[in-house]
Specification:
Layout lengths: L1 H7 L2 E2 H8 L3 H13 L3 E6 L9 E5 L5 E7 L3 E8 L4 E8 L5 H18 L7 E8 L23 H9 L2 E6 H12 L8 E6 L3 E7 L2 E3 L23 H5 L1 H6 L1 H11 L7 H9 L3 H25 L3 E5 H4 L2 H15 L5 E4 L6 H18 L12
Parallel strand pairs: 4-7, 7-8, 9-12, 12-13
Antiparallel strand pairs: 1-3, 2-3, 4-5, 5-6, 9-10, 10-11
Helix pairs in contact: 2-3, 4-5, 6-14, 9-11, 10-11, 11-13
Length: 378
Amino acid sequence: MLERIRRSGPVSRAQIARETGLSKPTVSQALSTLERANLVREAGRTSGGKGPTALLYELNPAAGWVVGIDVGREYVRAAVADLTGKIVAQRRNAARARSAKTLITTVGSVARAAAESAGIGWRRVTVAAVGSPGVFGSAGHPLLAHNLPGWTREGVLDEIRRELATSVVFENDVNLAALGERRRGLGRDVDDFVYFHVGTGVGLGIVMRGELFKGANGAAGEVAYLPLATADPHDKANRRRGALETAIGADGVLTAAKRAGVRGTTTAAAVFDAARAGDQKALQAVASVAEGIALGIAAIVPVLDPALVILGGGIGRNADMLREPLERELRALSPFRPRIEASALGEDAELVGAVSLALDAAQDRLFSRVDAGRGVAV
């Protein structure tokens, strides 16, 4: 019931009873319990219809607070939201990722600074959700997070928990971006889609039947390791970084630029800026990367059959430069024609997803305020 109120906004007892199939007395008892726990509040009365008006209820936004944290190689970002999901403050700092210890300290300082700027004492934070590169399976620590030094060592998640000193949940950053698109982006009304992140790293967030799909060990979507766009798929270096990531990630853009004869560019963003300005060699490099992205999509689509492919990440968001060579190459490679769009959320996709994950976890924790002994379905 609490989740229904959170998603539907102000609702009446009768509406909740109709939508849940619960009896009106049961709904009334549950609402009274939630009110005493300060989780819901009155929100006015219905208007405009015939007959008596009905009291409306909504989630109490200040009943708890959540923090979403995105940990990358370049930056650590944090967003604070109330229980309705409204983001009230954000902070962003350079990652300075020389070691896991330094990065964890940055995570704590950025998160607390965001809460402080929102005027919220850290003790009022119910859940923090942390997203980063890597596979979060049963190992107890991230795997395959080569872009963050020391991030895969034993105990790193426990150190983050101690630093944040609140309830913490973890998820792969690209999976969080897919959740963000599902909650507030292009995937809101699409049950089957993928979020193809192309940036410093490469990954795929998969939403099937409206739910995030992670596979048996949490590694679903690790498309960086597809043995594609490489001269030698058996090269041992591909086992560490991944052949597709090497070809189309940030380092791959610079390699393509060097191969095309581009001079004076030291970042992927600079290569795209040069291409946008009409530099023919830079355009050639961008086309090469777009063809690599098309190769990845051509491999993904027959397996998952998504209705939508959302391009994200610092490279993937350059749809104005990528679309034409990407779609041309995809037509040459595959009979399938998925809809392809650049993320509408941009770099905020991961943070929106982190907040969404934290809200789901916070709801479970806040149930502890409810008197479970009453046997009321809330």
